[in-house]
Amino acid sequence: MTFLRQPTRAGVRDAAAKVAAILPPTPLFVAEVHGTPVAFKAECLQPMGAFKLRGAWHRLTAIAAEDRARGVVAFSSGNHAQGVAWAARRLSMPSVIVMPSDAPKVKRDATLAMGAELVDYDRKTESREKIAAHLAHARGAVLVPSFDDAWIIEGQGSAGVEAAAQADATGFGPITRVVSPCGGGGLAAGLALALPDAAIVTVEPEGWDDMARSLDAGWIEPVRDDPPPTACDSLQTMRVSERTFEVLARRDALGVAVSEAEVRAAQRWAASRLRLVVEPGGAVALAAMLAGRVAPMSGTLVLLSGGNTDLADYARVLAEEAPAALAATS
Amino acid sequence: MTFLRQPTRAGVRDAAAKVAAILPPTPLFVAEVHGTPVAFKAECLQPMGAFKLRGAWHRLTAIAAEDRARGVVAFSSGNHAQGVAWAARRLSMPSVIVMPSDAPKVKRDATLAMGAELVDYDRKTESREKIAAHLAHARGAVLVPSFDDAWIIEGQGSAGVEAAAQADATGFGPITRVVSPCGGGGLAAGLALALPDAAIVTVEPEGWDDMARSLDAGWIEPVRDDPPPTACDSLQTMRVSERTFEVLARRDALGVAVSEAEVRAAQRWAASRLRLVVEPGGAVALAAMLAGRVAPMSGTLVLLSGGNTDLADYARVLAEEAPAALAATS
Fold first, then answer.
1. Which of A101, A275, B190, B244 could bridge to A120 as Cys pair (CB 3.0-4.6 Å)?
2. Is A131 helix (H, G, I), strand (E, B) or coil?
3. Range(s) of chain A covered by CATH 3.40.50.1100
4. Does residue A97 belong to the interface with chain B, where contact is any CB pair within 8 Å?
């Protein structure tokens, strides 16, 4: 049984200090969207390509010294796996990642390259939750959830602490609104705690906008049966958690959804204007701004949360239409 | 007649202070190449997508207050044009860019968007040098060369001052070798002045390696007749200048050339490992490292000098082969 610790603003500040001790801040770029200057936090430029190492670092460093040798277990085929593997390697801890046997070879290789041990499961017949829980129990290892955990939420929120300091130092001014990609809601909830005076907007792919519907309803609504295919693999979460939902609901967060075409347009915009490779799930907040689903407003911070995408897929997105080449505008 | 001022290390330091007053340092990323950690200076993340605003800023701020209203003139269809336009707008100075009438619309638009006035010329029948000189004379404006100028060289060198401070602060350690893209040699010469104890390597596209041949010969050799086509539009300079050549020759700089395929492989590597969009000419130094034309060595700084490239062209480069997807490795 886990003690149901709730994430706090103090915890986010603690996480930010811990992350600052080992990683330089990711850049904050200011660029105009529909004529309004917007601040972009480039988490795609983290060493493993996404914000996920923040939460993993805060969580793993909270493990008592005497327990570290038994390691950590996580289930994920994506950025969370790499974040946990990255943090574990840095702490010389063993890490086990439970990954579907049909996960792309590149994701398997990247996780292996970070020193993790992979345990396969069959997506159709086995439960990764059960396998991970069993492994953690058998080894005395700590199970690291991808979003439903106070430390993980606090750790992700460190991006907001960093961004606020950068916005202040560079003259962008106070952050009054945060627009964030949302899967399970760990990043968005962390940012809400980090920036207590900002309006919060979560962005999800169409058909996967369970956080938006939950915020609207006032209780948690899972993704409906047979959700549409989406390129946003990092945001395919079937249900948010009490912890993330409550933080966001208490802040009257607004949830919006974006189309697949809007996501691709945002990926192209990020390449041409910011020279950044952003994965589909990492580009949804930008997509919402560009598509006018979130009105331009000064003081807006947009999270570009990750850049891990298959090169061939990415090339197809860039080639789809290329009205604006990579000439600069700001 | 211009006083033939020579670029100096003191001038580079002055330029670095001036640039630091208006722009945050571009990030310095450390990633392994063939097992050796290498520092990458991401000049593609400058606001206009390339290092060129450094030299332009140092040059334009050296113009006496009473002369600024008459503005500046430059000839370029690429990054230099945008750098000059960027600096002029920032100083509320008029800028005129002489550009071939068949320059890509996106480059024209980007330069116009930065507030520059465009003057067309016919690439086949007119001399841009003459047009620019005539315009400068007629308007009493200052002609800003793209590399053959002490201020421009010093300004570009500010990237080296920044990188040295970052390498020191992040524990990468002293920079003992710099590998830099080379067109006219302004960036490479500036870096040589900025880092007086480092070995200098210039990198050019095959067939356009006049700096390499000049350094080898001991005197300036222009590009031979009928050079091969290259995607590295920003490095298509027919002849380096005395100023840039002498700085590099005095430092026993080594020049190497890379193939077009090696450049494309470097663009793919930068996208997948660093999540950066790098233009062909901006990727040649990385290409030389990856292709083994420059041996891995600790303390090496590689310049990723720009990221302004047509999206459709870039998509073709990424699609060409995609053995490694964008999963992270470090």
1. A101
2. helix
3. 9-50+150-327, 53-144
4. no
CATH number of B9-50+150-327: 3.40.50.1100
Task: Sort out which chain B residues have CB atoms less than 8 A from A277's CB and list them.
Answer: 271-272, 275-277, 326
Give CA–CA dist A133/A143, Å, rounded: 7
The separation between the first and the last C-alpha atoms of chain B, rounded to the nearest angstrom, is: 53
CB atoms closer than 10 angstroms to residue A21: 9
Task: Give CA–CA dist A30/A167, Å, rounded.
Answer: 9
Residues 263-292 of B with CB under 8 A from A: 268, 271-272, 274-279
The helix or strand, by DSSP H or E, that contains position B53, with its residue range, turns out to be: helix B52-60
Q: Tell me how far apart the alpha carbons of residues B172 and A285 are, in angstroms, rounded to a whole number.
A: 34
Contact call for residues B177 and B299 (beta carbons, < 8 A): yes
Residues of A in contact with B48 (CB under 8 A): 328, 330
Task: Report pLDDT digits (tens) over A223-234.
Answer: 999 999 999 999
Q: At what angle do helices B311-319 and B260-269 cross, to 10 degrees?
A: 90
CA dist B140 and B116 (Å) reads 17
pLDDT, tens only, A11-50: 999 999 999 999 999 999 999 999 999 999 999 999 999 9
| Alpha-helix runs per DSSP H in B72-149 | 79-90, 105-113, 128-139
Do B131 and B147 touch, CB atoms closer than 8 A? no
Amino acid, res. A25: P
pLDDT band for position A123 (cuts 50, 70, 90): confident
Asked if B78 and B234 count as a contact pair (C-beta separation under 8 A), the reply is: yes
Query: Does residue B24 sit at the A interface (CB-CB below 8 Å)?
Result: yes
The dihedrals phi and psi of A52, each to the nearest 5 degrees, come to -60, -25
* Alpha carbons B28 and B43: distance in angstroms, whole number: 9
| CATH placement of domain A53-144 | 3.40.50.1100
If contacts are CB pairs under 8 Å, which of residues 72-91 in chain B contact chain A? Answer: 82
Quick check: A64 pLDDT over 90?
Answer: yes
Residue A3's pLDDT band, with cuts at 50, 70 and 90, is low
Provide the strand spans (E) within A68-152.
72-75, 95-100, 117-121, 142-143
Residues 118-157 of A with CB under 8 A from B: none
Separation of alpha carbons B239 and A233, rounded Å: 49
Going residue by residue through chain B (330 aa), what tens digit of pLDDT does each one get? Answer: 455 789 999 999 999 999 999 999 999 999 999 999 999 999 999 999 999 999 999 999 999 999 999 999 999 878 999 999 999 999 999 999 999 888 877 788 889 999 999 999 988 888 888 999 999 999 999 999 999 999 999 999 999 999 999 999 999 999 999 999 999 999 999 999 999 999 999 999 999 999 999 999 999 999 999 999 999 999 999 999 999 999 999 999 999 999 999 999 999 999 999 999 999 999 999 999 999 999 999 999 999 999 999 999 999 999 997 444 443 343
Question: To 10 degrees, what angle do helices A9-20 and A150-169 make?
Answer: 70
Residues of A within 8 A of B171 (CB-CB) are none
What are A317-329's pLDDT values in tens digits?
A: 999 974 444 433 4
For residue B114, what are the CA distances in angstroms to A164, A274, B64, B101, B305?
Answer: 28, 16, 22, 18, 20
Q: How far is B142 from chain A (nearest CA, A)?
A: 23
